[in-house]
């Protein structure tokens, strides 16, 4: 300070003036430093966000939505630390700021508990992928094709092609039956014939009719056995493998064709009858 007073440039200036100029110079330095920190933080956060997103593009077998979510988290974390550094350059006690943010976050978390549980479940669904877009699933009794999996909800199209929105917390916390994971399924029927029918002939007609269809798989071998002696029928249990995509239509077609084949073969298919006897007066 004494050197400044001795220079010609500062001759005639009071000590108060010099102190004011020094404070202004220090403030200007802090502002420039804060701008530099913000710029660097912004650039670094954007760069890291792009890098995380590129990982999802590089590994096609992984879900890109997960990497987009992680990329956003990385960017906002970097920006949060950047803001704390900026506040620190101005002498703000960041410890108290962090405490305030933590308390506010706790209050917001309690207020949005349901929404955050959906987000947490959405992250688990994206990470572990029990269902994927295009899968035909049954979630807690709701059956349909998966159209979208977001952080908050899962969208299904039911059998009537009606949109169904299921909160992710209900998806993750429920029993999920995924019909699309395995390429083959086993179709199962029960056919009843009369007690007077030739069981060997009936068995041959049933098995021949089903295995003649190109959708029926011979490996694994089909299963057909008498499994129940009912009140009015002898019941055959039939199990045949087919492609998962053919299951519903194949099963419906065979139900009709076997009935027609049994009729053509003279095999009686019984049905309950009731005789009403009028009491004498």
Notes on the structure:
This protein is α+β, with helices and mostly antiparallel strands and 281 residues long. The chain has three domains: 2-111, Orthogonal Bundle (Helix Hairpins); 130-178, SH3 type barrels (Roll); 184-264, Alpha-Beta Plaits, CATH 3.30.70.100. 52% of the residues lie in helices and 19% in strands. Strands 4-3-2-1-5 form a five-stranded antiparallel β-sheet. Helix 2 (15-58) packs antiparallel against helix 3. The longest helix has 44 residues, at 15-58.
Keywords for this structure?
alpha+beta, Helix Hairpins, SH3 type barrels, Alpha-Beta Plaits, 3 domains, 8 strands
Write the layout of secondary structure elements.
Blueprint: H1 2-6, H2 15-58, H3 64-89, H4 94-111, H5 113-128, E1 136-139, E2 142-149, E3 153-157, E4 163-167, H6 168-172, E5 176-178, E6 184-193, H7 199-211, E7 223-229, E8 234-243, H8 247-264
Antiparallel strand pairs: 1-2, 1-5, 2-3, 3-4, 6-8, 7-8
Helix pairs in contact: 2-3, 7-8
């Amino acid at each position: 300070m004494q050197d400044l007073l001795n220079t010609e440039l500062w001759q005639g200036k009071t000590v108060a003036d010099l102190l004011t100029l020094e404070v202004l110079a220090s403030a200007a330095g802090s502002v420039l430093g804060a701008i530099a920190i913000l710029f660097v933080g912004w650039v670094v956060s954007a760069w890291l966000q792009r890098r995380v997103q590129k990982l999802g593009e590089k590994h096609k077998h992984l879900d890109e939505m997960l990497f987009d979510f992680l990329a956003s988290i990385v960017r906002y974390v970097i920006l949060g630390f950047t803001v704390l550094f900026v506040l620190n350059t101005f002498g703000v006690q960041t410890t108290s700021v962090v405490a305030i943010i933590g308390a506010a976050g706790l209050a917001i978390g309690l207020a949005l508990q349901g929404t955050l549980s959906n987000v947490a479940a959405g992250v688990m669904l994206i990470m572990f992928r029990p269902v994927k877009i295009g899968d035909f699933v049954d979630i807690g009794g709701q059956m349909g094709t998966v159209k979208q999996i977001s952080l908050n909800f899962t969208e299904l199209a039911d059998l009537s092609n009606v949109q169904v929105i299921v909160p992710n917390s209900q998806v993750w916390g429920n029993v999920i039956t995924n019909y699309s994971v395995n390429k083959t399924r086993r179709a199962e029927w029960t056919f009843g014939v009369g007690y007077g029918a030739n069981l060997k002939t009936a068995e041959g007609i049933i098995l021949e009719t089903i295995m003649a269809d190109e959708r029926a798989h011979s490996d694994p071998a089909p299963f057909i056995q008498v499994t129940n002696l009912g009140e009015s029928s002898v019941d055959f249990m039939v199990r045949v493998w087919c492609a998962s995509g053919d299951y519903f239509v194949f099963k419906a077609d065979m139900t009709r064709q076997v009935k027609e084949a049994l009729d053509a073969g003279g095999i009686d298919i019984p049905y309950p009858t009731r005789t009403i006897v009028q009491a004498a007066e």
